[in-house]
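Submission sheet (multi-component)
Chains listed below:
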Amino acid sequence: MLEVRNLECVRGDRRLFRELNFTLREGELLHLHGHNGSGKTTLLRAVSGLLLPSAGEILWRGKDIRELREEFSAELIFIGHKRAIKDDLSAVENLRVACTLDGVRISEEQAWKALERIGLYGFEDLPSRVLSQGQKRRVGLARLLLNRAPLWVLDEPFNALDKAAVGLLQGVIREHVANAGVVLLTTHQEVSLTQGAVHSLQLGSGELGHV
Amino acid sequence: MFEIFRTVVMRDLVLALRRRADLMTVLFFFVIVVSLFPLAIGPEMSTLRMIAPGVVWVAALLASMLALERLFAADYADGTLEQMLLTPQPLALLVLGKIAAHWLVTGLPLVLISPLLGLQYGLSGETLLVLLFSLLLGTPALSLIGAIGAALTLGLRGGGVLVSLLVLPLTIPVLIFGSGSVEATASGMGGEGHLYLLGAILVMSLVLAPLAAATALRISNE
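Outcome: structure written.
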């Protein structure tokens, strides 16, 4: 489904990686490893289409993502370092706006249910300003429960989450992979994903792992 | 399609209303700048009448530059802009929605208060009406053109000043025809011609500016 061919990314004067190749099929997860500054985030941003790689191509269902554009965006959820929630909006408002823009119609009730499941019961109506880091993170992650996009690109999704939330998110990811989804993620934490095929790729050590 | 546009406009309006202090600064800036001139120049009515169109229009231009910096900056900082780039919606439409909301909260109040400020300059009723109408056509064009500059300078240090330097030269036609329409009316020549041209500029920027700003956003988000 997702195919990366001879990818090369340069930030500033530094070449982060070159001739990177991998293919992910339905029901597969790719765990990116690498020390700080090895280009994990850059790779994820390139795969999402936010960043133009200096060489190589990224194909989704056999077509270049640059040509697919909005069609590709419809099948992608990207969760990056920035939390992407508005401090002046409540959790429900944030979630509903995000879903509408994603092209997913949700009712008020669905939004409340999703927030309850992600562990924000009782905080749905408060301005996000008063939520803790971990709670804000959860608001962003609630999108994963409502959007049926097959490709998930997650940059350090476990950051700032407590133990319960980490377990919950692992369950959500496991479920997605089991439902023929594709996940690309970085995390410094050990993640136990038992079901589905898990691949790992080491960046920045000179040797490139192959999938 | 319209629902997406409405969602973006409503979102930005709600956000603006929850941060009312930000809105007031632009309006007060406009009011104070326009009111300073009669104080500095003195109560000579004929002089004031002569400079009024220019003063009000330059003040409106500077006030809208002041507001521009905030158009995308907050969304850029918290990552919601990044998510907008990744939605399956046409980005130009989202940008247009943001500009519309931005004009409603920063441009429209300024338009509405302008006749009141015009009174300080002893403008006639008809001239005040043309002033209001010229600002109604001109300020959305300023927001649209300014959005391109705001998108290009996103994330740069000292972006605020840079936006003004980049955008001000582009807004000169709006300034000329805007203040020209008021002047022409005051001198009895009729300002319709100027207003038509102002309308044409608005239509053109309405079509082109969102596309240009959307492309600029993609570039500055790399």
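Remark: Residues 2-220 of chain B form one domain.
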